[in-house]
Design brief:
single chain; mainly alpha; 80% helix
């Protein structure tokens, strides 16, 4: 079982390494829509991971009452956890990053849903992609630190 977990963790690490490589390549070749797509996928995955490691995933899924998960609802659930002083989530997620992700997500959604109806500029897409990359990296780092802290706490109990 332990080897399976290590193998799954290694696969996850390799996937992230590859996606950040693709993100960097997309940015350097001005493929900003692809970069935005990758950033969003990373944020979706990291928010789920945070809830799973906090042992909140099942409660979250049940609270959705058959509706699928959304990045918005996952971020809001993490924010609720972070509001609780003394909780590990408070240490890692009580800053503005989660709010910034929600703002970025709204900008991204506006762009995607009106893609053919608006005048896009390369500069605007580049700015949104760069902001997304920064937020995805920050969330990934915070998620990793949070996971390590949770695992350490479990080992000490």
């Amino acid at each position: 079982m332990e080897n399976e977990t290590k193998s799954a963790n290694m696969q996850k690490y390799e996937n992230y390494k590859e996606q950040f490589k693709r993100l960097n390549m997309a940015m350097s070749h001005n493929f900003y829509l692809e970069a935005i797509f990758i950033c969003y996928a990373i944020m979706e995955d990291r928010t789920e991971s945070i809830l799973r490691h906090a042992d909140e995933w099942e409660k979250y899924v049940n609270s959705r009452k058959g509706h699928g998960s959304t990045i918005d609802s996952k971020v809001r659930r993490i924010k609720k956890l972070a509001e609780q002083r003394g909780m590990i989530a408070n240490k890692y997620f009580s800053d503005s990053v989660l709010d910034e992700i929600l703002i970025w997500k709204d900008k991204r959604n506006s762009l995607i849903h009106a893609l053919m109806k608006q005048e896009l500029t390369t500069e605007g897409l580049a700015e949104l992609a760069l902001e997304g990359k920064t937020l995805a990296r920050s969330l990934t780092n915070k998620s990793g630190s949070f996971t390590k802290a949770i695992e350490k706490k479990k080992q000490n109990c």
